[in-house]
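fyi for ur records
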Amino acid sequence: MHQQELLSKADKYFAGGTLGAFHLPPDVAMVFTHGQGTTIVDADGKEYIDFLLGSGPMILGHGHPAVVEAVERQLTRGTTFLTLNEPIIELGEKIVQAAPCGEKIRFATTGSEAVAFAVRMARAFTGRPKILRFEGGWHGISDGLLFGARPPLPSDYPHATADSAGLPTSAGVDVLVSPFNSTGEAVELIAEHGDELAAVIVEPLQRCIRPRPGFFEALREETQKRGVLLIFDEIVTGFRLAWGGAQERYGVVPDLATYGKTISGGFPSSAVCGRADVLETANPRRRPFPADPQSVIASGTFNGNPLSAVAGLAALQVLERPGTYERLYAMGDRIIAEIEAMGREFSIPLKVGGEGPVLQLLFTNADSILNYESMLYADKAKAYTFGVEMTRRGFFISPFEKIYLSVMHSDDDIDRMLAAARAVLRDEIQAI
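which gave:
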């Protein structure tokens, strides 16, 4: 079936003709049919070098032989059991041993579920209702965490505003918001609300914003002092910024960490990992709530799926090879340096945020990107044009999201992408 026919069918049956928030203008929209390595192909046969990577999960690229072989072998052995299976036990051990905070683990299926489980465990363990999150961070689509992700400015700190229709006001009552990287404000809120604060949850690399030196150390010190749990949402950063994720990269160990995207080789899976005493709130052998006030439900039909587990084990074995992360950072650092140099050459105010393996281009005059407000004032029209025009030229880069790198991206892929970026900045962005 031709691409336009498929797009028309999607428009007929899907809300907005999409699978979710991601969309492109009609003249650029495509339907992908297959991919191999860093190349993905649409229904009309056009090839693209993929720098979105499914929003991060495809860190080995598409169709990696190690993942394909593992999944094909498991298909004949069983695809889901609900209960314990050998692959998920092996994957759980691998993640716990890699995570600096790791003692025990509970699997889920999506990042949103893992974060919801972590927050539920924190509330049950501490007996406290409130959560502190940071303005502009993304923690999935559960009702209680769709407050404070995309607030209007100026913000009404520490009160959280809803990010979507359909959310009951009550879901945000126990959510506090603070600006990312504002150490003083965060510490003050933790101290003020410590007796009712269950957890502080943070993306260690918030979207593309790096933490200021000392920010996480201050959060760790103050949360420990107040008996508040610190949760790192490592859905994006886990096994991407380092083998030990952002915990290793930034040298701060939380009480809990959530994982997704990279842990399952492109298949659906996520997890909460961390302190054994906190994870034990999800022990089904406990007396049920309310007889046991710390007993939580954290379960799901596809949690611990063996297909996802064998794919994840195969992926992590590749990522564990010597030199993997050094090469990812070398590619990312080159992109940062060369695109920022292009900005200076063409007198286009821009910054490339993020860390080597995951980046984001922001068109801004700001000296640095420190928080949600500095991201919000970046020129979205230019960012949208850049993503669309790069995609039009055969480089799949989201107009809304980050640039992801995989172990399969070659020097030639980067050369060609940078050449296209130069043309787009010179020929399209300068005119805006």
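The radius of gyration is 22 Å. thats all i got for now
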